Amino acid sequence: MRIVSGKYKGRRFDPPHNITARPTTDFAKESLFNVLNNMLDFEQLTALDLFSGTGSISLELASRGCPQIYSIEQSERHLAFIRKTMKELGVSEITPLKADVFRYVESTDLKFDFIFADPPYALPELKDLPDLIFGKALLSDDGLFVLEHPKNYDFSQHPHFVQHRHYGNVNFSFFK
Q1: Cα(3)–Cα(59) distance, rounded to whole angstroms?
Q2: What angle do CA 23, 28, 33 make, to 5 degrees?
Q3: What is the DSSP string of 38-103?
Q4: What CA–CA distance (Å, rounded) separates 128 from 133?
Q5: Which end of the chain, N or C, is more open, meaning fewer C-beta atoms within 10 Å of its C-beta?
Q6: What is the pLDDT of residues 114-172, one digit of tens each?
Q7: Are strands 170-175 and 139-149 parallel, antiparallel or unpaired?
Q8: Whole-model pTM above 0.90?
């Protein structure tokens, strides 16, 4: 896992072997952030990273100057890795929270400019995530939600769908 750009560009981290997360590939993450660079001003965002796993997306956001990132992960093992990496880099912009994503979304009253979700591909509720995000009105008025998912999902008929991108086996659907 490496940080693609920003103040921590090029830094590499090896998640422990006992982590079960499937991190977004460096290729897909770099391609995603190339698209996001034209859509977002990272230095003005409040971001939410759901199913944060190794924290790769949260760390990339922090590296690019995002001032406030909430990183939601249920696994204490994964959170320990995120905290360790944050400490190594001196990152203070990330707030790692141990929580079930669905309970967190139901209970928070915060609004976010950018939400990223990388759920386990086998998660039965994956198809419901856009409705959940928009049903709880978690996005700010000009906010963007990006969902990483396997190729067998098609969100193009969702009323908030904007575009789909795929990089190898990684698919991203964008919603506004």
Answers
A1: 7
A2: 105
A3: TT--GGG-EEEEET-TT-HHHHHHHHTT-SEEEEEES-HHHHHHHHHHHHHHT--SEEEEE--HHH
A4: 9
A5: C
A6: 999 999 988 999 999 999 999 999 999 999 999 999 999 999 999 999 999 999 889 99
A7: antiparallel
A8: yes
